[in-house]
Amino acid sequence: MSRSLQAHFDYAIIGGGCMGVSAALALQKQSPNLTTILFEGTESNTASKGTCKIIRTPYMDKEYVLLAEEAKKRWESAFPYYNFYRRTGWVQEVHRGTYVPFHSGERSVKAEDLSHMVHSRDLPHLNVEKELWFNEDIGVADSALALEAVAEEAASKGVARWKKKISKLIIKSGICCGVECVDGTRITATTTIVATGPWTPALLSSSDIHLPDHIRNGFFSVTAIGVATLPLTEDEYTKFSTMPILVANEGISTSPT
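Request: output the structure for the sequence above.
Response:
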């Protein structure tokens, strides 16, 4: 039976987002003689497949800051990530006199400075109680392209990529031993990794897995944000590609990708 059609793998990974794809590549690098199958699904509008993700380090949690700093260094210098990342900086609208900078390089900017940064002829409508702060050590990444590049690298090292929907986990004697696809295909695995994000509760339910209330309640939550896009000409793209990210109470505006 061919590699792509074999019935058993050492690892079965469910989820084609950043966690699932990264796990597939890491496992294949760590254990090249083991077999891994990645079920990417057929969803195209997922959190990991956005075209413009903000890469930043200002967070309230100090441990998260350390992780973010490590991630940003990889986006800036490691292959293939640096191909899909560019530094833009961002400008925040904050309450006057209350903002505490995260980085020593942050600075206060005037409305005129912002107009120049975004190539606008008009000054922004800034409340008298607000001021603007610029942090240049922030950028954006085309995560959809980066994700595909990582998946292709994993495949080149032997990971089998399947764009199939999973209907349920195969459970025997309380142990997960594989997956069943919507079309009825069954693949067994020594270890099954679930990286399905907001689809996890539905997958567990269809697999007849019932978590205790104290674990289920508040453990999974699905959130969403509204996104609007504008088509640009080539000249407009070139003009606005260096525009910093704008952060205000009303929302976030990113530079084009």
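The chain is about 25% helix and 25% strand.
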